[in-house]
Design goal:
about 190 residues; about 50% helix; two-stranded antiparallel sheet; mainly alpha
Amino acid sequence: RDAFPNMGVLRTQYPWVEPAEKGRDPRVVLKRAQPPSWVGIQAISPALIGAVIVSEDWSFFSHDGYDPHEIRTALQKDLMEGRFARGASTITQQVVKNVFLERDKTLWRKFREFVLSVELDDKVSKSRILEVYLNIVELGDGIHGVGRASQYYFSKSASQLTAKEGAFLAMLLPSPKRYSQSFKDQKLTPYARK
């Protein structure tokens, strides 16, 4: 991949998560045409958007692509534990990582993620960054995007989600494969209940 790709492409192109081959991570490709399961930001429940913002990046609308406070907190924890123990990625950084970068946990990748996140925040509107994130985020094993997740978990469109349903989807974000087990088991884990 290009070390420093042009972030402006997200204004006009759509990231699409291709299903993973056995034993591999899913691949994200950019398409010029809107994918069939793409959900525009106006067609996503405000309750879901609010739950995701609160859960993932409470300062999303006020930062410049990164959150200095979260970076400081993560660095302190990482130094104490001697490893990458805590993430500090904003929604913008997650979009950069998931669309443009490999998944390795190296300082070089984190540096590129930081630089590209500032560029993305400068070149693309906050609503478009959020729209991209909500359409590529993993919300269960092989389930990417709020459109697919809304259908899978609740048999409804993303625009029809209630506050409780939006909170459930936001709750999945730290570990979607593990936390979606509560849905499969038809009972809430203590984390999901909280």
